[in-house]
Design goal:
This protein has helices at 2-15, 22-37, 41-54, 59-74, 77-84. By secondary structure, the protein is mainly α.
Amino acid sequence: MAQKGIETFKQVVERSKDTTSSTYTNAMLSVASLYYQLKKYDESKAWCNKTLKTNPQNAEAYYRIAVIDFDDVLKKPEFRAKMLHI
């Protein structure tokens, strides 16, 4: 189901003529969200960065990138140990 959703949202992005519309931005962030849920973090981050190219003020895209980066840091044992002792 997630893959079908990704393809549908990608079609919305491809067909959109107004890259400043909320529909366009929401479709891009929906692709990013679905990739994140599938644990495809690089793809998720790439879609967030695509969103930022057309909408550099989009807080949700920045937030999603920060979450991915934070999750990545927590995978490293030396940082995880520090975080658990705070």
